[in-house]
Amino acid sequence: MSLKSDGRDNVSGDEEEFRDACSRTNEEIVDELVNEQLKNLSVQSDDEKLKDLANGVRNDEPTTSRLNHSDEEEHEDFADCIDDIIDDEGLKEAERDLTDEQKKENKEKADKLKEQGNELFKDGDYIKASELYTTALMLCPVESYPNERAILYGNRAAAKMKLNSNKAAIEDCTKALLFNPNYMKALIRRAKLYEDTDKLDESLEDYKKIQKLDPSNQEAGQALIRLSEAINERNEKLKTEMLGKLKDLGNMILKPFGLSTNNFQMQQDPSTGSYSINFNQNPQ
Question: What's in the keyword line of the UniProt record (predicted)?
Answer without folding.
Answer: Phosphoprotein, Repeat, TPR repeat
